Structure formats: structure tokens, C-alpha cells
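Researcher: Next entry in the queue.
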Amino acid sequence: MEVRAITKNLPMSAQKMREVVRQIQGKNALHAQAILDFVPRKGARFVAETLKSAIANATNNHGLKAETLRIKECVAGAATTLKRMQPKARGSAGPILKRRCHIRIVLSDEQ
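Model: Structure for this entry, 111 residues:
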């Protein structure tokens, strides 16, 4: 049985989020939660929140035990980018790209 949770449009680039996501791929779900508690990055809070939601989906909706769950897939992908302009010299303008990302976590009870 596979259970997933998705968080969309987080205000952080997918490149920065992938550094956090790679640390928990393939691990036990409860062990991954413990790892994320000690990761000193802003993205770790968002990933931990999504993982907590995936575990809650598994226990409440499908009756699975949290101890048996493993992270089968954990992906951070790019979302829409907000485009802004910064005034520059001589009346020109420079682009500001405010990047966003999506997180998808898939849990499985198969070993």
C-alpha cells in the first residue's frame, strides 16, 4: 500500500529543498522525522511538515502503523516562479526571480 502527501508552492527554490530531501530518501518514516528535527535548514521544517501529513494519512485513512512505513519516494520539484523587477542604473531594470517548489512524499508499508 502506498500513501502520499503533497505540499505545493513553498517559498524556496527546488535546488535548496533537494539538499534536505536527499537526506531522508529510503529511510524509515519515524527515523526520518528524527533526522529532520536536527537538520539546521529552513527547508527541513517544510519537509517535516509534509512527512507528518503523509504519516497521518497512512494511519488515519488506511489503518497502517507508523513503525512499518518507509519513504519510497521523496521529491522536490520546481513550481511557478514569481517574476519581479529591480530598478537599475540609467532607467533600466533587472529581473528578480522568486522561485517556489512542490514537495511530494510517498510512503510504503512494503519492506
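Model: The longest strand covers residues 2-10.
Researcher: Noted, moving on.
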